[in-house]
Amino acid sequence: MSFLQKVEKIDVIVDDTLADPENISEEDRNPDLETLIVEWNLSLAIYAILIQHGYSVQYVKQMDDRSLDDVFSVAKWTGHKFALRQKLVLWPESVLYQSAGTSRACQNVSAVATVPFGSTTVAFHSNPLKHRLLPTSVTSELMNDILRRNEKGKIVAKYFEIHHCLDATHRKYLAHTVVDYYIANDLYFSLPDMAKFAQLIAERFSNELPVKLLKI
Q1: I need a surface site. Which of 43, 74, 126, 193 has the fewest CB within 10 A?
Q2: b/e string for 116-153 if b means 16 or more Cβ within 10 A?
Q3: pLDDT band at residue 135, thresholds of 50, 70 and 90?
Q4: pTM metric for this prediction
Q5: In which domain of life is the source organism classified (predicted)?
Q6: Rounded distance, CA 166 to CA 152, Å?
Q7: Which residues are CB-neighbours of 98 under 8 A, at least 6 positions away?
């Protein structure tokens, strides 16, 4: 085994250790932060990662995009980062909630789709009638291409073609398809992209009700 392979193996072990709540010592536990994570229905792995980076509830309130990137720097934690960011954006105590533009757009959300990302969730928000979408490179051509290339995307398109609606399972598949694209291309799933995808999904699958909540 080469030196680089040994380093990569050690990194994987360290990453898994940091994300395991069982490895938190009793003196390092933070009941307030744990309660917050549980109330937000997030993975306890997020709690473990935050604790072992020295975060408390007060610190979490101040998390911005840069600190989220620093804490969730490992590619396989990307879903955890997205899930926590979504909660922070909607949490009045958070600096992300108070930041101009992004938080204001999210307060007017009426269409939501949440998808599992490991043991966490990623949410799409859209209400194009109530706010202008922030800049994004997402287009209908991109979404259609994603549907064509992804096996679950093909299943969703075929189901809609036959039934002219999507049941809970196929809405879940649809959300997975979009998330899979971002994972495969190692891309950051920004809020503007989420909002644009939600708008395009509503247009592409127009027989669906305008307000959908997918409970995973």
Answers
A1: 74
A2: bbeebbbbbbbbbeebebeeeebeeebbeebbeebebb
A3: low
A4: 0.43
A5: Eukaryota
A6: 13
A7: 92
